[in-house]
Amino acid sequence: MSAQEAAMALVDPSAYADGRFERACAVLRRHTPVRRMEPPGFEPFYALTKHEDVHAVERQSELFAAAPRHRLVRADADPEPVRTLVSMDPPDHTAFRALVADWFRPRRLRAFEEQVRGLAKAAVDAMAERSGPYDFVPEISMQYPLTVICSMLGVPESDRGMILQLTQRSFGSEDPEYQALTAVDDPNEALMEFVNYFSKLVEDRLAHPTDDIASLLAHGEVNGERLELFDLLGYFGILATAGHDTTSSTIAGGLHALIEHPGQLDRLRADPSLVPLAVEEMIRWTTPVKSFMRTATADTEIRGEPIPEGEAVLLLYPSANRDEDVFNEPDRFDIGRDHNPHLAFGQGAHYCLGAHLARMEARAFFEELLPRLRHIEPAGDAELIKTLFVGGLKHLPIRAEVA
Ligand code: HEM
């Protein structure tokens, strides 16, 4: 693959689905790990494919800022219609993140463990009810994390289908199949529905405080002032979206990897104490977030390559997570991998707020499923989503016998 082909593969959503993205990362990582790309339709950027470089950039949040270009989008597109944590820098980022950071700490989350387990059990019960072939992604893996995050946000069960639609439509993916599913005449219409829905939720929590995140945000203050409506909506938006696509991709991609590596599945069933390591490996293996971006705030260099002030760098997490300098046999799926410093949750100031929750959800799911799983086999081809940003499998047809 030539440098030009690699540049095109990094900016083509289909390339993730057909394997060119992964090949491009491998070629760049080996030959030009810090490479300036100028693909047509996009502002130029430096692609970073080595673990060490992605890690170093993320640790230096003053030298490499999130604004003004925190993710890869076409030159004529707005990276984010509403500002959220991922696009902020200090001091705003620090103050906004502090609002809910406590909620997502392991100690606080322990209080939800029972509830998450109950929802994991319900997902496995739903598998047990099915006898013929079915598509695991839309029917199970998309639903379960959405239910978890909605119950934390305070969205009632009856509204969850609508929230899935709204998040897919207003923060939707580049995949034409998803775009067709969620098509609206006016693209702002979905965003307005989202605005109306969460505005009402906020009004309700202001009048009747509860212990959910909606209430926390409605009453939350930054510099002594209540959050403005659009900042509140950005918060709901990022929690609702970051909270389900990613975890769903880990669970579906993890199950797919187990089906494709029956020896690993047998090993996990024989020793369930390996589930935490297996989940970590599934997160590395699937790396649901493909990239974020940072912009250099001063002239600097990476691996000897000058990066002028104002230039953007693309942090390619899937590539960092297959770096042969860090991982022993990186292309092997190994549920017992015990040295696994993957960067799937990022690093530094923006380190994924939901990392503990995501791990808890995935562990609960596999701990519920494995003892009840009698048989599982593919019932068609698995298909990856077309994306530049977040996602994994969009179809995983299976036939499973679950007790
Ligand atoms: C940020 C990955 C699950 C909420 C991030 C980042 C990554 C990521 C790569 C950016 C980190 C950086 O820039 O250094 C993942 C993966 C997940 C997952 C792979 C599942 C396996 C979740 C869940 C939530 C969540 C369940 C639930 C609420 C967030 C938020 C941020 C974030 C709010 C922004 C943090 C900030 O900018 O300060 N995530 N995430 N994520 N994630 Fe996750």
Topology:
Elements: H1 3-10, H2 13-18, H3 20-31, E1 34-37, E2 45-48, H4 51-59, E3 64-65, H5 92-101, H6 106-110, H7 113-129, E4 134-135, H8 136-141, H9 143-153, H10 160-170, H11 176-181, H12 187-207, H13 213-219, E5 221-222, E6 225-226, H14 229-242, H15 245-260, H16 262-270, H17 275-286, E7 291-296, E8 300-302, E9 305-307, E10 312-316, H18 317-320, H19 355-369, E11 373-378, E12 383-384, E13 393-395, E14 397-402
Parallel strand pairs: 2-10
Antiparallel strand pairs: 1-2, 3-7, 4-14, 5-6, 7-10, 8-9, 11-14, 12-13
Helix pairs in contact: 1-3, 7-9, 7-19, 10-12, 12-13, 12-14, 15-17, 15-19, 17-19
This protein binds protoporphyrin IX containing FE.
Fill in the keyword field for this structure:
3-stranded antiparallel β-sheet, 14 strands, 403 residues, 5-stranded mixed β-sheet, 19 helices, Cytochrome p450, binds protoporphyrin IX containing FE, alpha+beta, 49% helix
Structural commentary:
- Helix 1 crosses helix 3, helix 7 packs antiparallel against helix 9 (143-153) and helix 10 (160-170) packs across helix 12 (187-207).
- This protein has helices at 3-10, 13-18, 20-31, 51-59, 92-101, 106-110, 113-129, 136-141, 143-153, 160-170, 176-181, 187-207, 213-219, 229-242, 245-260, 262-270, 275-286, 317-320, 355-369; strands spanning 34-37, 45-48, 64-65, 134-135, 221-222, 225-226, 291-296, 300-302, 305-307, 312-316, 373-378, 383-384, 393-395, 397-402.
- The protein is an alpha+beta fold.
- Helices cover 49% and strands 12% of the residues.
- The structure holds protoporphyrin IX containing FE.
- Protoporphyrin IX containing FE binds at residues 58, 85-86, 97, 149, 238-239, 242-243, 246-247, 250, 283, 288-289, 292, 317, 344-348, 350-354, 357-358.
- Pfam families: p450.
- Keywords: Heme, Iron, Metal-binding, Monooxygenase, Oxidoreductase.
- It comes from Actinomadura rugatobispora.
